Recover the amino acids of this structure.
DNA sequence: GCGGACTGCTTACCT
DNA sequence: ACAGGTAAGCAGTCCGCG
């Protein structure tokens, strides 16, 4: 495979060979061929293209057509396919053609094409309406320019509703903010991420016969599903079962030499020289391109033997060599390339006098895309909170290459002692090479997990891979909702219309400033409890949406006969006549995850590559399902509908309360519970079965035993406990000892306690363990008192600065005080930075670690923190901090 | 002028 | 630009205190 896609250069034509003054090679065969290759742009798909993956889409402003980027995995190339159906951009309005023709600004608009009358189902008024489609020649004519767009002209030129004759009380424009290529994807029923061929110039989906058997098997396990549900399960399964290709790709990193070592150069100015670029590709080719400079020594660092070092006499030639790469790889991976590497290269090339069409980069406001392939900026991807938490279980905490690399693939960046400009060639090469190596490997571990995850998300959301890797979960959900609206010929409602009709919530949140009441947390029973079963509803909220038919259309529907189908405890009702889209789509995704992908991802009898695919798929579904309730309560979501979220939460409270009562009734002690879980003390198998059956029958939802703790420790605090599993692993939830801001000095002591607790098997073991724990605490206390710590940084609190330091006006928290001190010392501090500070005796009682000295540490403050951290566990064990550290009751009183 | 009771702000966590 | 609920620590305010 690696060889194969380098063999085919049939596209190479025209354009004079570029001058390259590289030396100090030798080049491998592959690299030589790559250099010889000549570029043809655009890379048009031939009349008949072998099966290729739909990886991206855009609008070509010159050809005025939708453009699909197809990745052909055998040659490892991208092919462009332009629309040949004459599809055009449009928006919709409730004004008639007659009225619209009065608007000369519209009919004379250079982008205007024609009107059509269409019928669509309007979900908010629950009937088919006749509306006018305004077709344009260019998507920017509909919207997207600051002034004079069609969607703005209509309300501007009809300022008064009385000017026109319409049935509704308002002039409306719909679907004018959908990106044109998304519109194209929906209307043509295309599936990004799936496989297509080109036959006689037409784009045709490849038939998926190799997965038919599997799809049949999947449908077979959903016995209770309705025909409609089954149809959707099948639709999702087709998308998710089809295998992924190998992704031919290159990771890239650049270094720029700046006069001031601490400043990051501005990519919009691109004032300074690009001195090094490293490239690491999926065929194992590793290159470092260096710029020859005066006063730079060679150095004697060793790089891996297979790294090819190329030196360039001029920066221009170096950048040309990099651009050759960007013109030829289907996928280019960077870490922060949107805001730095690609942006810098593009502006630098401009400054150096490159012609526009020589630059392979499309520079946008916030992104940098490639004219040829697909640029994945891993920083954007890993920054996504949903990805961070649900796909990677919070394994990395700061979104920096070093941190993500260490956490996911155990690779660190190379630490620099000096600025880029002072490095020798080999030092610079080694440093830069490591970055592209980490970047590449972040897309390569676990059978190319990251690439496949992006592919799966692209399929679910009907989005290009470049968009899906940059945008948040609410966009993914919105886009598959849009797709399904179009598929059903439903009008996509405007957010303000949903709000006007269904915007009210009726419950009062516990937290001030929130819109509605959320979940229930059961008061824990403090103490140590042996044999604790944790039961939970798998995907509670998506289940509720499915079972209760929740969606913006069904909540508070217009049918009088549905008004008595009430949500428990609140006055909202739900439609009984028509299935809501969200309920159907999210419900079927949930069932597919719970009943197929989750079990398959744990099936040890399958080959590793399959398990990995199932695991990736279930992970992608998890990310989407976890957010599927929340988006309805987020005003940034296009189908924002607070009563849907409110009803979901209300039914959740109702469900857990019902089980609580049932458990009590069959005499199981409930120790704790949170939202969708119950912690049961020593239940019998029979009791568990009874609860499960009852839930299945009465609530129409599944209830599983998630795990069994050998023992669990609760304090009186909610969302705070420690549980030891049978295999000796320890779950710590919410305890201060695991929070990332506390000093490692305290954290280490806490971890020692954790290790000790893991070894406790029986209630009898506890006595010995308590003694050991007391000693751990005692030792820690003494070391503090004697000021015996390894380094000051062990005492640092690390707190994220949520805002720019000046923006704190109401209060000045300690980390902000420290940040301001740093600023006074000319250290650049910005929102999002992690501030490390220690507590000191003198005002203002905090100091950035790097400025503090041992003697000024306020030891008593640290003892107080040690105290409160351990108290969360100690009181459950019947231990007392003060007694442990040897204070008598009298001393404490004094 | 100072401490206690209180509220509010901020961060990090849980589901 | 998914939600609400909880814990902890500190900042700031008010009030009483001969």
């Amino acid at each position: 495979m690696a060889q194969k896609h380098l063999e085919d250069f049939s596209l190479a034509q025209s354009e004079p060979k570029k001058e390259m003054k590289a030396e100090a090679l030798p080049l491998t065969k592959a690299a030589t061929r790559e250099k010889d290759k000549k570029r043809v742009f655009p890379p048009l798909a031939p009349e008949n293209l072998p099966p290729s993956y739909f990886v991206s889409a855009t609008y070509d402003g010159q050809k005025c057509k939708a453009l699909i980027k197809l990745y052909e995995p055998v040659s490892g190339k991208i092919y462009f396919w332009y629309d040949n159906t004459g599809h055009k951009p449009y928006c919709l309005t409730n004004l008639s053609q007659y009225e619209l023709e009065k608007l000369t600004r519209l009919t004379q608009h250079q982008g205007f094409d024609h009107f059509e009358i269409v019928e669509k189902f309007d979900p908010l008024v629950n009937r088919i309406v006749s509306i006018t489609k305004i077709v344009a020649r260019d998507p920017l004519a509909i919207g997207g320019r600051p002034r004079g767009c069609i969607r703005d002209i209509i309300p501007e030129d009809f300022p008064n509703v009385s000017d026109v004759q319409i049935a509704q009380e308002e002039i409306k424009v719909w679907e004018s903010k959908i990106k044109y290529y998304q519109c194209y994807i929906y209307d043509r029923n295309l599936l990004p991420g799936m496989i297509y061929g080109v036959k006689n110039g037409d784009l045709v989906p490849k038939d998926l016969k190799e997965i038919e058997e599997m799809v049949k098997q999947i449908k077979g396990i959903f016995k209770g599903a309705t025909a409609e549900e089954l149809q959707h399960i099948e639709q999702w399964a087709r998308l998710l079962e089809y295998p992924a290709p190998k992704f031919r790709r290159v990771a890239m990193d650049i270094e720029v030499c700046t006069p001031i070592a601490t400043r990051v150069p501005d990519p919009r100015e691109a004032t300074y020289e690009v001195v090094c670029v490293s490239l690491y590709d999926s065929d194992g080719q590793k290159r470092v391109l260096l710029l020859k400079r005066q006063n730079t020594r060679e150095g004697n660092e060793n790089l891996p033997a297979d790294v090819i070092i190329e030196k360039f006499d001029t920066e221009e030639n170096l950048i040309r060599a990099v651009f050759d790469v960007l013109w030829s790889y289907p996928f280019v991976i960077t870490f922060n390339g949107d805001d730095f590497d690609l942006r810098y290269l593009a502006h630098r090339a401009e400054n150096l006098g490159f012609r526009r069409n020589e630059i392979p980069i499309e520079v946008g406001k916030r992104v940098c895309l490639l004219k040829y392939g697909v640029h994945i900026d891993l920083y954007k991807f890993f920054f996504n909170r949903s990805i961070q938490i649900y796909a990677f279980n919070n394994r990395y905490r700061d979104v920096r290459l070093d941190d993500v690399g260490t956490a996911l693939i155990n690779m660190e960046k190379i630490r620099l002692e000096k600025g880029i400009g002072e490095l020798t060639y080999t030092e610079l090469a080694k440093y830069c090479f490591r970055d592209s190596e980490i970047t590449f490997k972040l897309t390569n571990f676990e059978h190319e997990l990251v690439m496949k995850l992006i592919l799966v998300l692209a399929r679910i959301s009907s989005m290009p891979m470049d968009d899906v890797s940059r945008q948040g979960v609410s966009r993914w959900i919105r886009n598959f909702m849009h797709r399904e609206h179009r598929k059903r010929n439903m009008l996509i409602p405007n957010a303000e219309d949903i709000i006007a009709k269904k915007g009210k919530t009726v419950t009062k949140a516990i937290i001030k400033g929130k819109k509605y009441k959320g979940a229930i947390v059961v008061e824990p029973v403090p103490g140590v409890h042996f044999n604790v079963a944790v039961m939970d509803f798998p995907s509670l909220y998506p289940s509720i949406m499915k079972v209760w038919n929740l969606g913006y259309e069904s909540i508070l529907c217009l049918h009088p006969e549905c008004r008595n189908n009430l949500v428990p405890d609140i006055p909202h009702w739900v439609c009984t006549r028509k299935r809501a889209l969200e309920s159907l789509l999210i419900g079927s995704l949930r069932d597919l995850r719970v009943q197929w992908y989750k079990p398959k991802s744990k099936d040890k009898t399958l080959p590793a590559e399959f398990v990995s695919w199932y695991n990736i798929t279930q992970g992608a579904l998890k990310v989407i399902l976890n957010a599927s309730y929340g988006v309805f309560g987020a005003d940034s979501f296009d189908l924002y509908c607070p009563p849907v979220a409110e009803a979901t939460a209300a039914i959740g409270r109702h469900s857990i309360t019902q089980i609580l009562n049932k458990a009590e009734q069959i005499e199981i002690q409930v120790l704790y519970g949170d939202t969708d879980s119950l912690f049961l003390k020593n239940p019998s198998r029979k009791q568990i079965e009874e609860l499960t059956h009852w839930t299945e029958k009465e609530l129409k939802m599944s209830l599983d035993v998630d795990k069994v703790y050998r023992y669990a420790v609760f304090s009186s605090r909610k969302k705070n406990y420690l549980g030891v599993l049978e295999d000796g692993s320890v779950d710590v939830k919410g305890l201060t000892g695991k929070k990332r801001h506390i000093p490692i000095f305290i954290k280490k002591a806490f971890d020692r306690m954790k290790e000790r607790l893991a070894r406790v098997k029986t209630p009898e073991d506890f006595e010995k363990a308590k003694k050991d724990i007391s000693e751990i605490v005692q030792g820690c206390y003494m070391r503090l008192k004697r000021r015996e710590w390894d380094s000051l940084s062990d005492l640092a609190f690390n707190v994220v600065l949520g805002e720019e330091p000046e923006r704190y006006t109401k209060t000045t928290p300690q980390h902000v005080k420290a940040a301001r001190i740093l600023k006074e010392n000319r250290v650049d501090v910005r929102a999002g930075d992690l501030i490390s500070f220690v507590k000191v005796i003198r005002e203002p009682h905090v100091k950035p670690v790097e400025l503090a000295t041992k003697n000024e540490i306020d030891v008593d403050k640290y003892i107080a923190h040690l105290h409160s951290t351990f108290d969360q566990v100690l009181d459950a064990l019947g231990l007392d901090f003060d007694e442990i550290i040897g204070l008598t009751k009298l001393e404490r009183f004094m």
Q: What stands out?
A: The CA atoms of residues 17 and 38 of chain A lie 7 Å apart. The first strand of chain A starts at residue 22 and ends at 23. Chain A has 30 helices and 28 strands.
